[in-house]
Each structure stands twice: as C-alpha cells, then as structure tokens.
Amino acid sequence: MEMQFFMPMRPPTCTHQEKRVRVVHGKPVLYDPPAVQAARSKLTAHLAQHAPEAPMIGGVRLMVKWLFPKGRHKDGEYRTTKPDTDNLQKLLKDCMTEVGFWRDDAQVCSEIIEKFWAEIPGIWIRVEEV
User: What global pTM score does this model have?
Assistant: First the structure.
C-alpha cells in the first residue's frame, strides 16, 4: 500500500517534548498541556480524513514535509529554526497511530523529514509499506 496527501494548515509548533509532570498520590503522572492537546486534536482531525481502511502491516516508510508560513523567508527555503524535526515527528506519528495508519509507530523503519518556509502552509505526507 502506498498513499500521499497534503493537509493545508498552519502546522503546530508545540511538540510531544512539552509534556508536563504532576504528582498524584505521591507518583509522577505525565500530561499534555493545553497547547499540546490542541495540536494533537488538530493533527488527528486532519489525519482522520486520510486514514487507510485497514492499518498497514510490516515495515513503513514515512516521508513528511512540514511547510510553515513563509513570512519574510523565501518560498521553499529550508527552516533551520525550532521546532526540531524529531520532536515534530513524534506527535505526528502518535496521531497517525491513533487514527489507524499502522498498529504501532515502531513499524516506521524509514523516515525522510524536511521543514520549509512556504507560500502555502501545511503538511505533506507520503506513507508506503516496505
């Protein structure tokens, strides 16, 4: 199976790394702050429209282009500032798991991730079984 799609949106800049800890009955409990919850909801809603009928089985190659509003930058210029690509990917892959692209994001054995400034912001995704 192979699929690709574009989700026009302002990509979220908060990441999975922003989890917080609180102590409940003397034990630490991780939770998402409101900004991360909002980013998770936004990604999940957009991804659900493109989810496959059945989860992919076996190894998966994931290619993602994060396209941020260009502002004073040139269209197509690489974004070399935060957030880091690995932090962006973690939240995205968690959401893709949740909506059923695969059973476990450990199946992603090949990744190509790029981030750019772009005239049309969004996230372009290509997923294929390998």
Answer: 0.89
